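Example 5.3 — Phage protein
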Amino acid sequence: MKFGIRKPSFRKRLSARTSVKRHFVHRAKIKMPKGYGWIRNPKKYAYNKVYRRTTFPLFSLLKKLLKK
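Solution (predicted structure tokens):
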């Protein structure tokens, strides 16, 4: 598990938005309502829940530093 600053990855961001699986799910209207990820893949849901609470994005850190 990662702790601390998340590094943005342009390649991963682009591939997530243009994946074949994403297009298939959206076109087939098989999307689940928000918050139902634990039904579809409980292991991934638990991992992401912990990951989001233990890391923070680089841009939010920069934003806080520039405000002061």
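Remark. The chain has one domain: 4-67.
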